[in-house]
Amino acid sequence: MPGTVTVLQTSPVRVVDQIDESTMYFYRLFWTFPPCVAAFQHCKPLVSIDGTHLYGKYGGTLLLAIAQDGNSNILPIAFALVEGENAESWSFFLSNLRTHVTSQEGILVISDRHNGIKAALENPENGCLPLGAYRAYCICHVAANFSLSFKGKDARRMLVNAAYAKTEAEFYYWFDIMRTENLAMCDWANRMEYEKWTQHQDSGRRFGHMTTNISECVNSMLKGTRNLPVISLVKSTYGRLAELFVLRGQTAKVQLGSGHEFCQALVKAIEKNIRDSRCFTVTLYDKH
Question: Which stretches make up the MULE transposase domain (predicted)?
Fold first, then answer.
């Protein structure tokens, strides 16, 4: 497809301590398609990044970045084939992602707490430092790590409820319960910056997205492709994205033809807020 971005990184052949510069082999590949780049301009300014292992002859890892539009539709926007998850491979992926897809300021990156991702995001050469980009943790991964130290569903539930709290008062309600149960739980949580794992201090950047579940949805969408050779895998992402764009385009055309000006997720949210507001009671207090 014209306009498709591909960045190939090769490596010389090594024989014992000798390097043969005349022969190169495949090392890493980044790619994205023009419709994905254009569509991201109309999505929420956040991306979920994740990696999934490949099971083919050559192994490796597929890194991917996922966005979501205002109608809650997921959109894969970039891919990379790398040797594994480490600081160098994530730097390769994130630097190209920022250069070719998410070049605007203030992007939020949601991920697990992998050390390779941390190092890549903190590398100033990748363009992922504030104010250019911000980082947030997937609460599912945080809770999983928390459960290794503190057993029981109740402990995990309290941490998750504190993370999802939308107000400071609600957050400290759950945090105080954790402190009462076991002070060590609060000490564990306090080792993380609040803006990276709590919703009430995310400055509105999360748009309610607390996990990388959208990445896992795409992992399931790519089921059956992770054992393919490199060329077939790239072709598969193109084919499945082409089907996705056609399907979403047809859906949008039907909605516009029916006179719907806004996407259905937004309309339903507005209607729900209107219904809920009818139950509100307004109490007037003395302004002084």
Answer: 47-144
The domain that holds 76 is classified in CATH as: 3.30.420
pLDDT tops 70 at residue 112: yes
CA nearest 112: which of 77, 95, 136?
A: 136
Instruction: Provide the residue range defining the domain that includes 109.
Output: 5-138+211-263
- Tell me the helix, strand and coil percentages in the chain, rounded to 5: 45, 20, 35
| 149 shares a domain with 43 | no
CA dihedral 273, 278, 281, 287 (to 10 degrees): 60
As for how many domains the chain has, the answer is 2
Structure tokens at 286: 């003395």
Residue 25 confidence (pLDDT) above 90:
no
Q: Which residue has the tokens 């402190």?
A: 179
Q: Is the pLDDT of residue 288 over 70?
A: no
Tell whether the torsion through CA atoms of 266, 271, 276 and 280 is positive or negative: positive
Write the pLDDT tens digit of every residue in 266-281: 888 899 999 999 998 8
